[in-house]
Amino acid sequence: NYIYRFDFDGNFLGSSEQPGSNLPGANTQGMRDLACDGTYLYGGLLDQVIAMNMTSGHEAYRFTGPYNNNTAIAYDPDRDVLWVSKNSQDIVAVDKVTGEEQDRIPASLYIDAITYWPGEEDGFNLYLAAHALNENLRGVYRANPESHEIEWVMDLPDVDNQNYKLKGLAIIQRYNVYY
After folding, report:
1. What is the DSSP annotation of 85-146?
2. Which residues pair with residue 58 across a beta bridge?
3. Residue 167: pLDDT above 90?
4. Of the four, 19, 20, 136, 142, which is 20 to 30 A from 161 by CA?
5. CB burial string 21-56: b at 16+ within 10 A, e below
6. What is the pLDDT averaged over residues 163-172?
7. pLDDT digits (tens, 9 = 90+) for 29-56
């Protein structure tokens, strides 16, 4: 499992092996979701959350996350924390250096990925790629870190019945369709 780096023009800058690949059981899993605070790139691997240097891809530090398999992760610039989840577990805000729990949003969803949108004026800043327990239809949900409410946004259709699954999520302000 590798981290691949590209510049804003799409030019390949290099790659490096994902930090933590030597952990027992990590050789086949790899990091499923990544978050960035402008200084470090964060990824969950087994029970660890690993901060990586954005230029080299090498590990800067790590801490034990709230779960064994911290599979979904997002950076919250308003609170300067990482939101971490695993499948059907709660969404936990942790200190991005120590891993100490700061907050918890109860979630009865199977969560595959999380992202944070600071521009959301109604407070529902956490977006989740998830599905209800015991269902396969994937959807987008959003959570309010203050009230701990979670609401459905939209279902994502099973494209041509090919069983595609949404396993990542990002929100961007601009997209160049001609890139």
Report:
1. E-BTSPEEEEETTT--EEEEE---EEEEEEEE-TT-TTS--EEEEEEETT----EEEEE-TT
2. none
3. no
4. 142
5. eeeeebeebebbbbbebeebbbbbbbbbbbbbeeee
6. 64
7. 788 889 999 999 999 998 999 999 988 8
